From TrEMBL:
Record protein name field: SnoaL-like domain-containing protein
Location of the SnoaL-like domain: 72-161
Ranges where the record places region Disordered: 1-22
Organism domain of life: Bacteria
InterPro entries attached to this UniProt entry: NTF2-like_dom_sf, SnoaL-like
Compositional bias of kind Basic and acidic residues: 1-15
Length: 185
């Protein structure tokens, strides 16, 4: 089954952002989510539509220090805290997922993350850089994401993001643009 999954992921390499690592047989986050969306993994992983949205919220406190935003994002992501994660986004956020699909608003962003968080991934965000002008921050990072496929094999993906944040005062720093489809080098 894993070979069939890998073959399907690499049918459209330009859409999944194939790199030398993924060309060698790794499964990208985008490919993994595409397969999940088609239902290929749903049966094997025992997921249901209601299970995808059964995330809980443990911490939605605003983050008022830009240097702590990625820590909060990483903690909430790794905890599967969908509501807490989405609380870090502005209502009218522009979110570009690793596939390059653009989503506008919290609801669309939440739906995209719900699929990923259902897989119980772990992320480590490094190489964090923030440049701030008044209430706007430009941030970049590199990340390593681990997912477990239905056969129990751990898939390690790497990438990066370029984000624009705004300081909303008491509501803290929130992402107004989150582009997870590329990495600043």
């Amino acid at each position: 089954m894993l070979n069939a999954i890998k073959d399907r992921v690499h049918e459209r390499p330009s859409e999944v952002g194939e790199t030398p690592a993924t060309a060698a047989g790794g499964l990208t986050r985008a490919g993994f989510l595409r397969l999940l969306g088609t239902g290929l993994f749903a049966g094997g992983a025992g997921l249901s539509a209601t299970g995808l949205f059964a995330q809980t919220s443990s911490d939605t406190a605003p983050v008022t220090d830009i240097d702590k935003v990625y820590d909060a994002w990483q903690d909430r992501f790794n905890a599967g805290d969908l509501d807490g994660l989405i609380a870090l986004y502005a209502e009218d956020v522009t979110y570009i997922n690793p596939d390059g699909a653009e989503w506008i608003g919290k609801a669309a962003t939440k739906a995209d993350y719900a699929e990923l968080l259902a897989l119980k991934p772990r992320i480590e965000i490094g190489d964090r850089i923030h440049v701030v002008h008044q209430d706007i921050g430009l941030s970049t990072n590199h990340w390593t994401l681990e997912l477990t496929d239905p056969e129990g094999k751990v898939q390690t993906l790497t990438g990066g993001g370029i984000e624009v944040l705004r300081d909303f005062g008491d509501a803290g720093w929130q992402f107004i643009i989150d582009d997870a489809s590329r990495s600043a080098s």
